[in-house]
Amino acid sequence: MRVKDPNPCHIVGVLDDGMASLSATAGALIRSADVVIGGSRTLELFGTWFKPGAVRHDLTGALSHVPEWVRSAREQLLRCVVLATGDPLCHGIAPYLAQHLCIDALEIHPNLSTLQLACARIGLAWQDARIVSAHGKDAGEWHRGNGPSHGLYPLAQALRQHDRLLVLTSPCNSPDRIARLLKAEGLADDFHMAVAERLLQAEERVLPQLSPAEAAEMTFAELNVVLLWRHVPAPRPVRFGLPDAAYHQRQPEKGLITKQEVRAVSLARMQLRADSVVWDIGAGSGSVGLEAARLCPQGHVHAIEKNEADVAIARRNHEAFGVSNYSLHWGKAPEGLDTWPAPDAVFIGGSGGELATLIGGILERLRPQGRLVMNFVTLENLATATAALQSLVDQGVMWDVLQIQASRSKPILHMHRMVAENPVWIVCAWRGQATEGVQGGQDE
């Protein structure tokens, strides 16, 4: 049972029509506050309602100071109010303050969210919509293959997983930039778009049905929200075990791809989770990394390939695959890997002659319970890998080898015969407890 604080900090949700949309209780709290905290625009909007002598704190660019301002006011037994936009619990300041102050020190007075108002303006049901904030830092225009550090990455991911989205924008991540994201991801023809500007102000404007192509060329007022909804059904792609023919491959040397059967076993050995961070080294056509991206919708795949022609092929496959959590780099590992986030799973399909170095470096970076999976078709590379792994056994590294050889049926006259594929060795390594007498090749 929550104990009511005798002098809580009141977080009051406000809108751009000032006192008009506030309850009598919320209005009284603002009028009687000794300390008022809010953004510069909000403080100006409500400034005439503050009592004489009320202390004002502008939180614009100073969010980290707000907990201390609240704490100081309460210690002095002053009545403190934080002005938040709309619903303070919907991508607002309330969760941040609850994290930095005792929850019992806060009392929250929500208002309508601007997203609710926008939905009401165009009659869009929002109970099954996904709310996404694009308030992240300005990382520039979105390009296919951008990673999680980009401010629009959560939106790019959500577009693949939800049919309705309500987007809180920012001056840099504006509706026109969001529309260009849809174009870059090949989704511009799949979604309708609405933009609500300056809600509850005299200059309010609602554009109820835009195409992303139109919106990409427009300019919008700084204060706005964006609504997106599908009018083309979302695809239901196969996530795992696609046939080799589903991928673009190098011509005329068709076949430079991790084959379906080997790919399936390799992905199984990687022990992927929905949020896994995956490295694909020697990506080739991209088949393993792209299937991993579909299997890890909340994770991200970082792929690298040294051959320029294969990079172009992998990019074509990425474009056709419909994933936003895949970044392809042109380069030779291990160069650049030190800038990648620590992986949960790593696949090596090609090493460019740096195999032993790669194995040691990857096992140092691998997260707990992570897996390194490697494919080899030559005895020499297999020997190099197993020797490198065996040298790390006393450091708690464990490993095993699986040989797989599939045969596929081929027609011969009116009958069929079996044609063998080349054998492939799948080597898997992980960190376990270093134990006296433990050798490579043991079961997990």
Structural descriptors:
single chain; alpha/beta; seven-stranded mixed sheet; five-stranded parallel sheet; 13 helices; elongated
Describe what you observe in this structure.
With about 450 residues, this protein is of the alpha/beta class. The strands form four sheets. Strands 13-12-11-14-15-19-16 form a seven-stranded mixed β-sheet, with helices on both faces. The protein has a five-stranded parallel β-sheet with strand order 3-2-4-1-5, sandwiched between helices. A five-stranded mixed β-sheet has the order 6-7-10-8-9, sandwiched between helices. The model is unreliable at about 435-444 (pLDDT under 50). The radius of gyration is 28 Å and the shape is elongated. It contains 13 helices and 19 strands.
Which class do the helix and strand fractions yield?
alpha/beta
Biggest sheet strand order reads 13-12-11-14-15-19-16
Please bin the fraction of helical residues: 25-40%
Poorly predicted spans: 434-444
Give the helix tally: 13
Shape: elongated
Query: Main β-sheet, in a few words?
Result: 7 strands, mixed
The count of strands amounts to 19
Radius of gyration: 28 Å
Return the average pLDDT rounded to an integer: 93
In whole angstroms, the N-to-C terminal distance is 47 Å
Relative strand content:
15-25%
